Every structure is written in C-alpha cells, then in structure tokens.
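Hi there. Long-time user, first ticket. I'm pasting a complex I've been working with (about 274 residues overall). I'd like to know whether the download I got is complete or cut off, because the file seemed smaller than I expected. Thanks.
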Amino acid sequence: MINTSLNDSELLSLYIGGNEEAFEELLNRHKDRVFTTIYLIVKDRYTAEDLMQEVFIKAIRTIKSGRYNEEGKFLPWILRIGHNLSIDHFRKEKRYPTIVMEDGSSVFNSLEFSETSIEDEHIKQDTYNLLKGYIKELPDTQREVLMMRHYMKMSFQEIADATDVSINTALGRMRYALINLRKKFEQNQIAYDKNLYRK
Amino acid sequence: MIKTFTENDLVRFLYDEVNEDERDEIRESLLTDIQLQNKITELKRVMESLDAFVMKAPKEAVSRILYASKNLQSA
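Hi, the file is complete. Here it is re-exported in full:
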C-alpha cells in the first residue's frame, strides 16, 4: 500500500522508479480537477473524458521516457497539458477559428459554457448548476482569470503574462469575479455551505 | 498604527501569493479589524464554493489511464 501522505514529488519519484501504485495515488488525487478544468474549456462531458485520458497518457509517456523535468509542481504541469490539448482540440475541430493563443488572445474569450442539455434540464434546480450558470454569466475577462487562477493554479503573474495585462489588472479581474459571484449568491439566497454542492 | 491593505492585496493573500511579511501584517490586522475580517470571510466563502465545483472524473477513463500506465514501458 502506498503512503497517501507522500507529496506529489515523492510519488513521482516512486513512479519513475516503477511503482504503479504511486501513479494511481497521483491520478486519484488530481483526476477530478483535471477533468473539471478541461470540461470548463470544452463544455462537453464526453470530449472532456477523452481529453482527460489523452492528458494523463501524454504525462505517462513523458515521465516514463525520462523527459519529465520537474521545474514546477505536478498539478500545474498536467493542467497545462490539459489546456494545450483542449486548444488543439478546437483547432482540429475548427469550431472556434478565432482562437489564436500565440498572439496573446485567449481561448476563454471565445468560449461559452454548454447550452442546456437534457441532463441539465433534469437537475437545473441543483445549486451546482446554478454555480455553473453564475460562472458563465461573468464577463469574459473575469471568467478567464478565475479559471486560470482557481482551476489551473496559474499565479497572477503568469496570468498577467498570458493575457498581456498588468498583474494589478489580473488581480482586479479576479477580485471582481469573486465579488460578482458573491452578489449572485446573495441575490439568490444561496447558502455557502459546501455540503450543498454536489461532489 | 493601523495598516491598510488594497483589495488586490487581500486577493493575493487569499491565494497565498503574498510574501511572509505581508502575510504576517494581514494576519495581525485580522485580529482586530472587523471590516477586514468580514471582507476576507466573504471572499473565502466564494472560493470555497468554487472549490466545491469539481466534477467527478468518469471511472471508465480512470481505469483506461491506469491500464495504459501499466502497459507503457519505461525508456
């Protein structure tokens, strides 16, 4: 049995040494966040599932081939792979031809969350869905920073660099995103109790 | 002397992007500044809600990833 108190770097070292249980622990630790992040970009559950699989397999290949260079932490690294593969997905699909990351524009500016599906109809009263709706209603620039900071774990400086704004602008956008969400919660009398949210 | 912080300072504090001195200053102020306490609490609650917005990764995909890991050879 693997010691679950080990940190990501320790687990990676074990995995590099051939311990598959260490990888299983890493996967269990981060799979939901990776899946959520990809879903928030591609807005389709099945595409997100395929991409999540692709992300982890790409990571496995990198690690097993000895090319993993841990300059940063494991989660930001794997989320970055997820982000890049999600953008590649849009390029292949040509569903969002205006997305060109190289020139500094952001994929998030062109994205919308999924339209109401049958599943959404069934659970539309769910607080979880309300939160998804609130995030969707945020101005593009605020939603972009919120996703990059909160789900992709990029620092505010990295976000500022990626979106070509000052760090104070990135911070301000995050602050307004949080304030706007708080206002929406208050307007709709949503309790903040974490237990209300579906896991 | 009462130290004042910008709203952006508080966001950096909540996301753990302040240096040690700034962290200590904000923590010290939090002991006595009720307005600051309220601001931090409100923002933190929203962040906790966002933390709770995490979708479960499909089990089938997880199984396929584990299978791939076991069957991919190291260099």
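A couple of notes from our side: Helices of chain B lie at 7-14, 20-30, 34-52, 59-71. Chain B has four helices and no strands.
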